[in-house]
Amino acid sequence: MLGLTSPAVAAGAAKAPVKTATTSVTTAPTLASRLAAVQTAKQINYYPSTAGWSRMWSNFDTAKIDADLAKADALGATSVRAIIFPHTFGYPTPKAEYTARLANFVTMAAARGLSVKFTLFDWWGGYTDVTGSTAWATAILKPYRNDPRVISVELQNEFNPTNTAAVAWAQKIVPAVRAVAPTMPLTFSVDGQSGAAGMAQIKTALAATPLNYYDFHFYGNSERALSVIGKAKATVAPSPMVIGEVGLSTLQYTEGEQAAFLARVFRAAEVAGVRSVSPWTLTDFASGSIPESNVAKLPAQYYYGLYRTNGSAKPAAAVVKAGFTGTAMPANLLDNSFEAAAGQTPWRAFMPELGLAVKTQSAVRTGKWSVSLTNTGKTSAGSPSYRVAPIAPVQPGQTWRGEVWARGNAATGASQIALSWFDANDKWLGGVSSAALPAGTTNWTRLVVTGVAPANSASIQIHLKSGDNKGTVWFDDVAMSVS
Hints:
It comes from Paractinoplanes rishiriensis. It contains twelve helices and 19 strands.
């Protein structure tokens, strides 16, 4: 059972380390060394599954936290983010029991080989109190200013650059914190809705006291992640940029879609030259574990984890491990033969009102499953289909190839594999389709489509479509490639 941990227990409850780590300060870090660590950090965003947000600190459970840090270590993480709440810790003077818990967290992370990024001033709006803000930040940071276990400070999570009071506060707090910890890289994060424009606004507002790096949160359409990430990076260049949060809730999407989403972002970031991608979050949250707030009122927030609340891994955990360790992504991540368990495919229905793709065992080419479309319609807007986006990001001028095996029973209309391209604003740029499966009853037939991505392409989708079909068509064994 969770409960308040006394300062004495909190100060000494770290478990035995599982790999070599720096648990005492021997060499003072430099700004350059810390900034280098920031840019390559394999960082995980973290709260315990049973104590989200401020409750991580008020219900500080060393055993649970240490077990979770071990799980992050096993994923290949090298760093963990600690989000700190002024009014939980005590403001403007932090309470000793809470600074002891923070010190214990840093020690436990180091014992697992993880550095720590601090996020200050979360759930904060006291922008007129610069004096109190400075005193509080100084008290939190002073013990770590020369501690290599702490690699950076995010001054506020998802800062609003259109809030004039917040900007005026930021212009004062940056130099104040820099004076306390001159070798500590400083940043603000920007949410995905603000995007590159928000990054530009912060950069302009803080031109006199520039940040050391920029922190971008990505929750948009992963199919066009390369375009979004590349634009954000170019906006703040030559300053470094990291992706400090990225995730997809499995309340609204399948676990297969979550895994593919993260794989696309890791791959897009690699192509864009962004080397640090931090998933949100390690685990799902148990019911009621998020404190009463606007966040708690958003049910999707409970399901961003790489692990379920029972501790079992979602498919996304293997994706993140591959991304962190630089190894190959899980085989058949896109479920090309439709063998994935229920809820673990990234494929989605398109125009299901005209015909819904159904996973079936009634006819298969390989394995145990295929998908079928029966008695479909067709309109001027298109035909119903089953669609997915590849993991590799699209770039203009690339030649893409898709193939699928199809079989018909009294089929009519047109059953094909098709490619569709879209720009950064999700505007359809065009597409290309294979030859149609012959009408009537046919054996397994390979359908092939190739096309060149047009100018301004930011995403691509593969569609298995069947329109105006009074019979049934089955699809199996999809293959995709790009050159």
